[in-house]
Each structure stands twice: as C-alpha cells, then as structure tokens.
Amino acid sequence: MRRLNGLLHSRGTLAELFSSRANSFGLLRLALATAVVVSHLYPLGYGPLDPLWMRSGQQTDLGKMSVVGFFVLSGFMITGSGRRTSIGRYSWHRALRILPGLWGSLLISTLVIIPFLYHYAHGSLAGFWNHPQGPLNYLKGTWNTSLSGGWDVSGTIHEGIRRGTNHDQSVNGALWSLKYELLCYVMVGLLAAGGVLTRARRFIPLAAFALWILILNDWLNAPGWRGIPGDMGTYVAVPLLGGMSVHFLVHLGFVFLLGAAVQLYREKVPVHDGLALVALLTLAVTMRWGGLFVIGYPAFAYLLFWLAIRLPRPFQTVGRKRDFSYGIYIYGFTVEQALAMLGFVKYGKPVYLATALACTVVLAAFSWYAIESPAMRLKDWTPRPIARLKARRAAGRGEAAGDPAQAAAETAKGAAEATRSSVRA
C-alpha cells in the first residue's frame, strides 16, 4: 500500500529535487553514448540496422534514440548555461566543450587510424597523402562539422566496402548530429542575448509546440501509423555548417526545446513515479504501434529527467569528474570501422563489440585527460584587453559611487585578472 501511495503522489518538483552536484546526467550521457556504439555495431559490421529498427516498425533505431536523448539533456543544460552567463562567456564555454575534442579526434582519425588502415589495405601509403579526397580535404571540410569534404579519406573505407569488410562509406558517420547541436547552441545564445530566456521564457514552449504541430502534421499525412514521417530529402544551406536536413532540424530542434522548456519551468515539472511509469508505457506503445515522434519523444524526455533525479545516489557520481561520453561518441564509429576492416567481425558480435568498446574507451579517456579537460580549464580565461576594460569600467563605477577604496580594489582585481589571462594564454 505504501508503494502504491508513492506512485500516486509527486515527490516534488524538478526545481526542488534537482541539484547540479547530485544528479545522474553523467551516467545518462555515458549510457547514451555507449548505446550509439552498440547501435553502430550492426550496420558497420553486418549491414542491417540494429534490431530496434524493425521492432519499432522502422521508426527509429537505438542510435537515433540516443541522439534524441542527448538533445533533450543538452537543451536542459545548455539553456541553464545561457541564463547564467553572459553571451561572450557562454559562447566561449560551448566552443571549449565541443571543438577541441572534435579537432583532436579528427587529427587522430585522419593522421593515425586511417593511414594505418590504408597501409593495411594497400601495403604502402603511396597515393594516400596526395589523393584528391585526401586527409587535408577531409579536415578542411569537417573541422566545423559541415562534412563538406566528403565522408571518406583517400578511398580507404571504399576499399573496405569493395572487399566486403565494411558496409558504410563514412570514416566517422556519427559526426552528422554535431552541426545540429551547434546550431541549437547558437539559437540559445541569441535568445539569451535578447533576454528571451529570462524575460520571455514562454517563447520556448511555444516554439516547441509549433515544431510539434509540424511533426504531428507529417505523422498524420504519413502512409502508415509507423515509419518515419516527413520529407527526409529536403535540405537547407546554413552558413558555415553547410546543408542541413529539414527533417532533423524540426525533430532535433523539438526535443532540444523540450529540454530547454523543462529548464525554464523546473518549478512546474513534477517528479512523479506514477508519471514515469505512464511515460515508460507510452514509449513502449508508440515504439510498437506508431506515434513515437509525436507522443513517444515527450514521454522519453520525461523518463530521462525522472531517471536523473530518482536513480540511486551511487549513480550520481558517474561522470562528475571524468566525462568520457563525448569521447565515446566521437571515436566509436571510427573504431568500429577500423575493426571491421581488420576482420574482427568474423569473431562474432560479442568479441567485436567488446573490442570496439575497449578501444573506444581508451581513446575517450585520452581525449578527456589530454584535450577536453585541459581545454575546459580555460573556461574562466579572459583576454587581457577585455580584462583591462572591465577593470576600468569597475573603477569608474566605484568612483561614481564616491568610494575610492572600492575603485582601487576593483582596479587591482582587474589588473590581477589581466595578468592571469596573459599567463594562461
């Protein structure tokens, strides 16, 4: 009876129960990143998509659902960052979190892993560096996530396809979602700069609702109750980021805004075990019979936030000090492609997956300790000219207030900050 009563009553709101130091977001991100690697095991090593594709009536697969989960959590966390920090500091933080790790993975993949595979396939590196679609071309087209330089490097993966060891033409097809995430970051930055996140927060759920209407309309017009609704072949050109699918702009934008709306209305979101059970059943039903995009996505989003709060305390320490999730995401695909070309698929799915996960975690740990964590330590860095300008403005405010001591203190603080900035640079 006590358990039944617990299901029927809210444990409080998300605002009351959420703590930035005690939540399971780190574990959820790690689980989602690992699920992407598991999902890619099937198409990269064997051809067909993972089993969830057919079991969901071709609505989704494990990898795409994991990306949806990432966007929900990102919407929540990034919107919180946009509300707390200035636009300059926000942009700096987002760039530090995404770009150094991405650039490191591109260099390792393009200058180490792929040359090794090319040599393995051809017996030498002849023709690799000066290939029309060589490493420089790939790096130039991928550094900003636009993937405008193509998906392969010097025909290396194409050779694997020709030999029958590989089934996908991409060196790292997992990077497709990063430009959509970057676009969402830019959107949040613009909304924060315009004061929308603080003074007109209702705009966010209204925008999410507008995208939901588009998804609902596509679903109702789809040939069947299951299957992907909407036109998957329509693209728009976005400056710097290149061509972007309208379908994913709408669907990923929707789930990102769901997370953003939860952040802005935390005081109205109940953490309710009964609602979590209903959400789980809804997700299962829509997976089986259709409506995943319209009904299942919001249910999945609620489940993620419920898990972030309700998972036992030991799970809340995962990823707090070491977050390997991003590294797993940006390295897993390339590692699986490499292992497929090297013939690991013949040992069976358990061996192939275990080897892929082990190698990916090693590279993710390297990325965290050597690139991502050092980069994040620069989050409070301020260029010397800006630090001096802040010091002069602070001193001016102190003098205007008639407090010379405060003005001197602010000037000294600004000078110290400028010195630290020059040292960190």
UniProtKB/TrEMBL annotation:
The chain crosses the membrane at residues 21-42, 62-80, 101-121, 178-196, 203-220, 240-262, 295-312, 324-345, 351-371. Residues 397-419 have a biased composition (Low complexity). It comes from the Bacteria. InterPro entries: Acyl_transf_3_dom. Keywords: Acyltransferase, Membrane, Transferase, Transmembrane, Transmembrane helix. It holds the Pfam family Acyl_transf_3. One of its GO terms (molecular function) is acyltransferase activity. Residues 392-425 are annotated as: Disordered. The keyword rRNA-binding does not apply. The keyword Membrane applies. Residues 26-365 form the Acyltransferase domain. This is Acyltransferase.
